[in-house]
Design brief:
Blueprint (H helix, E strand, L loop, with lengths): L5 E3 L2 H6 L8 E3 H26 L7 H17 L9 H66 L5 H11 L12 H18 L1
Antiparallel strand pairs: 1-2
């Protein structure tokens, strides 16, 4: 058997919904039924106004209505401290602010999330295009370097040619194990001079 939770209403809320003052507890379905019979048109007007002015095409009417019912139950159970304002005015103003607060928080977090995601997507697209351009420029640079080396090979002696071939193939010839650093630097210097002179 399902138990229906009972809510204790304030005396002002009982008068607002036309309940007998003697009733101490009632179930939520009855509260919402009474509320709908008396104030459904006014609630719908409030929801349409909120939806149209503040959250156009962001939140559905039914979503706002469900949150409104939740807030209605919370307001009706809450005892207010200052009873200067008539209860009906207090009720509608409080309901409006609670609905707006709830959906403002929702809208702002959703907006931040969407902005963050879209910003990251834009950055990823920029990064992807930049990587692609750098890969193309690196490939072009590599091809250009190979073309220049091919032109340079006609001006190199055997020792320099062997060094270039080993460098391009990423291997080290056996005779270079016996060369000193100064000899390798001399070979590189000669290659640079010929490159600057002929290419």
């Amino acid at each position: 058997m399902i138990k229906i939770k009972k809510d204790k209403l304030t005396n002002e809320a009982k008068e607002f919904l036309s309940f007998d003052i003697d009733i101490i507890k009632t179930n939520r379905n009855e509260i919402l039924f009474r509320f709908n019979t008396k104030y459904l048109v006014r609630l719908k007007q409030l929801i349409f106004k909120i939806q149209r002015i503040y959250f156009n095409n962001v939140f559905d009417f039914d979503e706002i209505l469900n949150i409104s019912y939740f807030e209605v139950l919370e307001i009706l159970k809450t005892e207010r401290e200052h009873k200067v304002i008539p209860y009906e005015n207090y009720f509608w103003k409080t309901l409006k602010y609670k609905i707006l607060n709830y959906f403002n928080v929702n809208y702002n977090t959703q907006n931040k999330f969407e902005t963050k995601v879209s910003y990251n997507l834009i950055n990823l697209k920029k990064l992807q295009s930049k990587i692609y351009q750098e890969n193309i420029s690196a490939e072009n640079y590599k091809n250009l370097a190979y073309q220049k080396i091919e032109k340079l090979k006609t001006y190199l002696n055997d020792q320099e040619l062997c060094y270039i071939e080993s460098y391009l193939n990423n291997s080290k010839p056996k005779e270079y194990n016996f060369y000193s650093t100064s000899k390798i630097n001399e070979i590189l210097h000669n290659i640079k001079e010929k490159y600057n002179k002929y290419i």
